[in-house]
Amino acid sequence: MDSVWYDGDAVGFLDQRALPRAVSRERATTVDDVVEAIRTLAVRGAPAIGIFGAYGVALAARIHAGDRAGYEAAAARIRAARPTAVNLAWAVDRVLAVPTGDELTEASRIHEEQRDVDRRIADASVELFPPSGNVLTHCNTGPIATGGDGTALGCFIAAHRAGKALHVFVDETRPLLQGARLTMFELHEGGVPCTLIVDSAAAITMQRKSIRAVVVGADRIARNGDTANKIGTYGVAIAAAHHGIPFYVAAPRSTFDFTLESGAGIPIEERSPDEVRIAPDDAVFNPAFDVTPGRLVTGFITEYGVLAPPYADAIADLEHRPRIPLPVA
Ligand code: MRU
User: Fold this and answer.
1) What predicted TM-score, i.e. pTM, was given to this entire model?
2) Among 41, 121, 140, 290, residue to substitute to test ligand 1 (most atoms within 8 Å of Cβ)
3) Alpha-carbon distance 216 to 229, whole Å?
4) Domain annotation for the chain: domains and CATH numbers
């Protein structure tokens, strides 16, 4: 199920807000539509918003043909639509850097590369899983979140297809329920056995259900391995460390921010109190992401293989690796 695509004079997207109730395909025909779809999480997941943003910039190039200043202002608005996932800024900058007329080709290339990258991430992960057992994840990292086969969820689906009898415990992922609404939906689609838990049940699930591995995605990874991901990931990582369970982050190179030495510099999006509060006057702190210290991460599953500590060296090495070539058609 494609989550984003280019559609003549619009950017198409699967409205993730409607899932799993309805499969609703929409079209963004203006830059405002593109920004709104990203802000409201109609399109979400770090790689997917990167691809959608890239197509959005191609749309802006068409709308602002002959008006470079208008085009760049539109691209800047798309780039700023959400702050934490570095994939958005990375993809917008890639499209901005190409000669006039090549924007859509570059956006399509980013999309095609993600499909290839996701397959490589899944391939790199299969050996990490036992032949059978329980695993756990947080948030949603499947095909709809990446525009390809998924990252962490793509690993589970690939392991399942390779004959491993994995059972996935899925954190519901408060407050917007990406786990309950999207991950459960995608695991059912992939035929992977799964069980939904509330976020606060993650620790007892590790204690009582013999969890063999935790795999999550990421929105931005600093040079020391500090990892921003959906709020709640940090607590899951602490619980995994307490129980001696390996905690993996599956993410493409485009999610690494080589300009940041540590997670302290990662901008954390704070979202509306209305997503959380029950009583109208309650004060609310609603960070959409948290930062898991790199020392709690057992390994990063990337398209270049699994990175092991010390991450300062492994991530410095990743920075200088050549871009993975596209598969031969
Ligand atoms: O706010 P969201 O739903 O966009 O947050 C998404 C996540 O935190 C994902 O885990 C991350 O983007 C990786 S998606 C492959």
Assistant:
1) 0.97
2) 140
3) 8
4) 4-117 (1.20.120.420), 128-319 (3.40.50.10470)
What dihedral do alpha carbons 213, 207, 232, 176 form, nearest 10°? 90
Mean pLDDT, the chain, whole residue set? 97
The pLDDT, as a whole number, for residue 326 is 60
Question: Rounded to the nearest whole angstrom, what is the distance from the C-alpha of residue 309 to the centroid of ligand 1?
Answer: 24
Task: Compute the distance from residue 229 Cα to the ligand 1 centre, in Å.
Answer: 6
At residue 207, the pLDDT reads 98
For the segment 130-158, what is each residue's pLDDT rounded down to a tens digit? Answer: 999 999 999 999 999 999 999 999 999 99
Question: What per-residue confidence (pLDDT) applies to 327?
Answer: 54
Does ligand 1 come within 6 angstroms of the Cβ of 114? no
Ligand 1 centroid distance, CA of 11 (Å): 20
